[in-house]
Amino acid sequence: MNLPQAAALLRSARRVVIMTGAGVSAESGIPTFRDAQTGHWARFRPEDLASPEAYWKGPELVWDWYAGRYRDVMAAAPNRGHTLLAELERRKLAEYGESAFTLVTQNVDGLHLRAGSLPPLELHGNLTHGRCEACERVQPLPGPASFIPPPTCNVCRSRMRPNVVWFGELLPEEVLAAAQFAFERAEVALIIGTSSQVYPAAALADLTLQRGGAVIEINPDTTPLTRRATLSLRTTAGEGLAALMDASP
Ligand code: OAD
Predict the structure, then answer these.
(1) N or C, which end of the chain has less CB nearby within 10 Å?
(2) Alpha carbon nearest to ligand 1 atom 22, residue
């Protein structure tokens, strides 16, 4: 499949699913997950900060790291990739109804929502929220300027943990099931800015391929998915989406 064919397929498809990873936020200046350990944090591995063991051992340290990432995310703005996905969503919903478009993300930065997308299926949670350690209510964090970690629950005053999925934790079951459903039914799946190395997210594209759907990858680098993809565009999220959407007849 070449670019014009992919663009035509995307244009006519009645069921489209999108998976985004850290690469879609790279153009907003948010480092990808594996590049995020800079400065003071360079001496920690992601597993030493984003795991239940790390949190129980040193909740202050883990909260400091998340508070920094929260401030960075809130200071960043959505980029062209986010905006084009919100536009594609509007078009598909207007033309073919609410089952025509599903946005799934591994990102925890909340930028899709800020770009105007409907709330995506967030496989790994969202770092703009906390979850009460006692009553499990999910609540937005205070504004970044006034936020002093750790946050406490508005209801029971217990400490909240970051509302993200850590290494070794299970993904939220209903969110994963909804994502699987969308990938199974999709005529076209766009896999954008993910290293396709973290499971179960990395396995979702195969559900589309197994049912005869097309998988289009957008990534400046090759990934384990590249060989299986119907088409792989070796470019950034913003450029790749613009090419796919503009090239439509
Ligand atoms: P990674 O940091 O593993 O990979 C980011 C991908 O984005 C790489 O394949 C880059 O080549 C690509 N990339 C970089 N710049 C890009 C750009 N401008 N446009 C498009 N792509 C670009 O991030 P993820 O695959 O999202 O999980 O990582 C998946 C999960 O691994 C994360 O959600 C996190 C981590 O374990 C949890 O926190 C549970």
Answers:
(1) C
(2) 23
